[in-house]
Amino acid sequence: MCNCCVTRLHAPSFLLGVLLTLPSILYFWYGAGFGTWPSFFDSYNYDDEGIVYDEELPILLRNTSMDTNTVILTSVNEAWAAPNSLLDLFLESFHAGEEIEHLLKHLLIIAMDPRAYERCMEVHPHCYFLKTKGIDYSSEKVYMSKDYLEMVWGRNKLQQRILELGFNFLLTDVDILWFRNPMKYISTTSHLTFASDYYFGNAKSLRNVANGGFVYVRSCNETVKFYKSWHQARKKYPEQHDQKVLNKVKRDLTSRYHVKIRFIDTAYCSGFCQFKTDVKKICTIHANCCIGLGNKTADLRNILDDWKRYKSLSFWQKRKGQFRLRAPQCRMR
Fold this sequence. Notes:
There is one protein chain. This protein is an alpha/beta fold. It has a domain of 225 residues: Spore Coat Polysaccharide Biosynthesis Protein SpsA, Chain A, CATH 3.90.550.10. Helix content is 40%, strand content 16%. Strands 4-3-2-6-9-8-10 form a 7-stranded mixed beta sheet. A 3-stranded mixed beta sheet has the order 7-12-11. Strands 1-5 form a two-stranded antiparallel sheet. Helix 4 runs parallel beside helix 9, helix 6 packs antiparallel against helix 7 and helix 7 packs across helix 8. The N and C termini lie far apart (91 Å).
């Protein structure tokens, strides 16, 4: 038989062999770290904003939810999750608080980058890696920078997804210390309950300035629509973060979707914006109105140490009502 005939006969087998071995070659090359995976391998998993939601999310939500189908959520990047940073203070406050340590089993931590996820798994059993295409969330994000805005709006979109899956959630920023259970101040008849940057005396008044870093949301059609429109309003205010946009559109959205919003008095869910010092009432303290990771960490550490000193007092010393937490040094006027 002529050589060219042999070549023709063997060509199909050769091509078949190449096709069969190609996946193994690619797996070795990219899996070993010699290259990055081509975008076509994972592009179909992402939504129109580059966020992927995999099958692990509903499983984790089921595993962490309370009997009321409610999950406590917070989010971290590498800088916030680093040792002795915000995540450690946040978790420590649950252990130091009054009868709230058990709530940690209902806490799902959203990691915004791989190293934050690794650190999260070292200190907490329930962690979810929110994969976002083409964005690095690992370093400290300067307030109102482009990466900062992408991060907070990505978190906002995840909250919408959790509502769509049928779960209620209590979102708490990681720069919040928990001392007591704040859930008794959450209205069961409202759709959304916000902590307040500034509270003006009426829990129903939309004059209160909503704190988007501490919010309880009940899963229903109304709140899903609310969140979708809130997120879409970003296009109208492209250089604003989610909380700023919320305070601009809350009147319109509550009217449009017949959503009931309530606000928590800062006497109970306090913050650096409107700092309250009555330690007998305070449930949480938020390092809002403060820029800079180091500034937040220093002030929260002082406040947590003060809380521990308060807990060590005798019953009669506490009853005198003279103990006050140190005021934060980092406050924007």
